[in-house]
Design brief:
This protein is about 50% helix and about 15% strand. By secondary structure, the protein is of the alpha/beta class. The longest helix has 15 residues.
């Protein structure tokens, strides 16, 4: 049994969220790299929970993941509200950096997949400057279809990274990792959404004041009003949790 199977979790609508702190999460994933067992890490928020409730295929991807961390403030609130709290929010952007920091001690290999050719190239350059002891063993943009999947997987396997970060949008990156997890055989595989855009300097992360007030979602909405449709899942999630309070954390 892998160590992640015995981690403390809280079930939010059947999705097992890790109750570990950021530091404990990094320790578990450090051991995952050393054990060379493939682990899919999902950094999940209320939007993804609502999508999983509407789509059994997404729910299966979530339940099959070796680790799901509470990236969204709404998930942290829901666990707390229902009386089975998580230790803290574990944002994917910070988890990526923490893993690279630890990876410097081991000279871990890192593969970056997704975004545009310009963004991915600049991300590789900047991460190598920031973490000179890690090895960027490969990168490629996210503009490929399922016909090229085999070729992409083969290239990643050949590069043999310890960490694989995938930025292809929440609706495609997690299912893609799930589908190719066993073929890839990468110890830690994680979807990182818009992280490459921030790292490359293409877009800005929410200012500290928004982060402190847990309003990063609101900052993103101000910057990209087109996200309003997706963001509607947030109040829907909150209302649903309040209505279902007694049953939210029941294991199903």
């Amino acid at each position: 049994m892998s160590q992640t199977e015995s981690l403390p979790t809280v079930s939010i609508y059947g999705i097992p969220f890790s109750k570990l702190t950021m530091q404990e999460t990094v320790q578990v994933l450090e051991e995952a790299v050393l054990s060379k067992q493939p682990h899919q890490v999902i950094t999940a928020n209320p939007i993804m929970v609502m999508a999983a409730l509407e789509n059994p295929a997404i729910m299966k991807v979530m339940k099959d993941a070796e680790m799901i961390v509470p990236d969204g403030t709404g998930v942290v609130w829901a666990a707390n509200y229902c009386g089975d709290p998580v230790a803290e929010r574990v944002p994917g952007f910070e988890l990526l950096h923490e893993l690279l920091r630890v990876g410097e001690n081991y000279r871990w290999g890192v593969y970056l997949l997704g975004s545009t050719p310009e963004v991915i190239q600049e991300t590789a350059v900047r991460l190598q400057q920031q973490y000179p002891a890690i090895r960027i063993v490969g990168y490629r943009d996210g503009f490929f279809g399922s016909a090229e999947d085999e070729q992409v997987v083969a290239a990643i396997k050949q590069a043999a990274p310890d960490l694989l970060f995938v930025a292809r949008g929440a609706d495609t990156q997690e299912p893609w990792i799930h589908k190719h997890k066993h073929a890839l055989q990468v110890p830690v595989m994680m979807g990182v959404g818009g992280s490459f855009d921030v790292i490359s300097g293409k877009s800005k992360r929410a200012p500290k004041v928004f982060q402190k007030l847990r309003l990063e979602w609101f900052y993103r909405l101000l910057r990209e009003p087109s996200r309003a449709g997706r963001m509607l899942a947030l109040p829907k999630f909150a209302v649903k949790v309040m209505r279902d309070k007694e049953n939210v954390t029941k294991v199903r």
